[in-house]
Structure formats: structure tokens, C-alpha cells
Amino acid sequence: MTTSGTNLEHARAHNRRVVIEAIRLNGELTRAEIARLTSLTPQTVSNIATELEQVGILSSHLPRRAGGRGQPATPLTLNPDSAYSIGIHLDHQSLLVVLVDLTGQVRFRKLVHVQKPQPEPTLALIDHIQQEMRQQVKIDWRKILGVGVVMPGPFGVEGISSQGPTTLHGWDNVDIEARLSALTGWPVTLENDATVAAIGERFHGVARQLSSFVYLYIGTGLGAGIFTDGRIYTGHAHNAGEIGHMVVQPGGRDCYCGNKGCLERYVSLQAAYEACDLDPMTAMPEDLLNVDETQIESWLDTAVEPACQAINIMECVFDAQCVIIGGMMPQPLVEKLINRLTPLYNSVRSRYPKAARIRIGMSGSDTPALGAAALPIFDEFNPQYEVLLK
Questions:
Q1: Residue 203: which of 21, 58, 355 has the closest Cα?
Q2: CA distances from 231 to 100, 112, 234, 274, 383 (A)
Q3: How far apart are CA 54 and CA 208, in angstroms?
């Protein structure tokens, strides 16, 4: 995949992002390689690279490469200490806070188990954790880009946002972004879990080289993060991808949203807990690794058909390069699910029989928090063609 820049005189902000993105995707690049990959002129690349080196975002301390004629070229890499971001994941059982550098390395991690967290005690707990983080981690705190927060969606939907086991009760009217920004002094961005997992996968996982993909996020419920042409699609109220409430079995299992046969009643941690006789309000994802194999197979028997339907719909609607499946479900179980999903239904992706239509993404309890931490970095450095219109 290549990201093309533009040589318009007033497009410097966009071109800087393009250069950073090219280096991020490839690890290290010479100026000549950047020019070739981005379609920018060598002079434009040289000017931007010099500027980014001066402000510390890029580093040229790697050994020179021997090449053809002339002086050996010096590769450029991202300086991990040039920027940091914080990710916060809150659900009905746990609070996880991480601090990452520009390359995605975790510099701080704090997990606290909570039960049905309420706003005021939770905000006080986050404040306590950030003070602990400041004391333990020796970095330049002026380089924090912001805070990404992930919570279960959907947001602001009457009859759904505050009901059922997949949502957080009591948070309906809390301006989380404003409260946390006032508390920390940094800009705060709130997104649903599937969206931030997709961003995390785009930055650190198997989607690094993909421009259009759908990330099926298996959490307590089920959601989808959607990337189209290198940009995340969030929808009018940040609820795009709430496919968990897409009806796939008319007249099927009751869902708290009022419908019957919703997708997440079959494909989710909640559905797996029920099939394995675990209490959804106290069970943790890792508990599914200790149950009888016949119970897991029983869950898979009911999950495969709805999952195939969802993949077919996502492929036909978005024409994505692939569908990535991950989330908080333990990886061995995600692998079992993927192994059971063939043959898939024919869709617009069927014309590429050799291309992998399904890939396994990052999975485990840290996935949402790492995706949340990628939000400020994504906002600051991802190429955005809208800047050309400003």
C-alpha cells in the first residue's frame, strides 16, 4: 500500500503526515525511498524530513546504507520519545490505563478490577492512577498528545445505551470528554470499543498495510470498526458499526434492545458465557479457556452461521480488503471460530479467491486500551485529505 502526497504549496501539513505515515508503515526509509513511495518531490521530502528532525519526531541515528553512486543514504525512523498518548478502557468489570510512545511501546499499565463502575468514583480512580503514572514514569509530559477513552457503545440511543449487560449504567448524561480533560489537562477523545480496536490494528497489527477493512470486535457485545480508504468511519453519532443489534435470526433469542435474534446474542462474550454456564456479570474472558470443550463447541455451533451472515453483509456493503476478527475474546477461541467459518458465503470479495478474506487480529484484554491510546496519535499524524480543503 502507498500513501500519495501532493506538491500543492499550501499542503505542507498533509505532506508532513504522509511522510510520517510512510516511515511508520515501513520502520525506516531513506529520503529517496520516501519520495518514491509518496510521489513527493525529493526537495519537498528533504525539507519536511529536516523540519521533522529538528523538532525531534524523526531520527537519523541508524547506520548509513551503502548503495550506488554518491554518499551512502541515511535511513530515517520515528523517534519513540517524541510523542506519547494515554489509553483508557472502561467496561462493567475493569478499568485499564496505558501510556504508550509514538511507536506503540507501552510505558505504563495499570489494571483495576471494578464492578458496575459509577461516574464519580471512577473519575476519582482515574485521577489517582494518572498521578501514580506521573510519579513512576520519567518522560517529558509536555509531549502527551492526548487521552483516548473507550467505552461500550452505542452512545445516546434511547432504549439501548443504558440497558443490558453490554452497557454502563449511570453514564448516560456524563460528558466524559469534558470531565476527563478538566481532570488531566489534556484533550480527550471518546470512541466505542470496536472503532478504537480497528485504529489499534491499523497502527500496530495486521492492518498496517490495509486501507479498507472491517474489524469485528468481540467484546461483551459485538461491534465493527470500519476503515475506508485509510480513514475511520464513525457515523453521525459515533455509532457506526453497531452491528451487534443487526437481526440475523428473525424470531430468535430475546435481546435487551427489544428485538429478537440480534447478532450479538450469538457472537459475543456474553453468548459464550451463557453457553458455558458462566455468570456474565462476574466472568472474565480467560475463564472461557477453563471450561469443558463440549461447551465451547456448543457455543460455536450457534455462532458460526450468524457470523458468516455478518461477514457477508460487511463485505457487500464496504467492499473491504478483508474482515479482521479480534477483541477481548481469548485468541485460541477466536482461532476456533475462524476455523469454523469456511466456506464463507459468496460476496463481492469472492472475485479474489487467493486473498485472505478473514484475518485474526489483536485479541486479549489490552486490545481496547491500546486502540484508545492510538486515537490521539491517529488524529495527529494520520494523513487527512480534508486538510487540503482548508
A1: 21
A2: 22, 32, 10, 36, 9
A3: 27
Cα Dmax for the chain: 72
The model's pLDDT over 315-362, given as tens digits with 9 standing for 90+, comes to 999 988 999 999 889 999 999 999 999 888 888 877 666 568 899 987
Which candidate, 254, 207, 209, places its Cα nearest to that of 226? 207
Cell of residue 375, nine digits: 486515537
Other C-beta atoms closer than 10 Å to the C-beta of 365 total 18
Please, what's the b/e burial string for 247-268 (b: 16 or more CB within 10 A of its CB; e: otherwise)?
bbbeebeebbbebebbbbbbbb
- Arithmetic mean of pLDDT, 46-57: 90
Residues 6+ apart with CB under 8 A from 72: 64, 65, 66
Distance CA 255, CA 131 (A): 41
Provide the grid cell at 178: 469534558
Q: Is the pLDDT of residue 390 over 80?
A: no
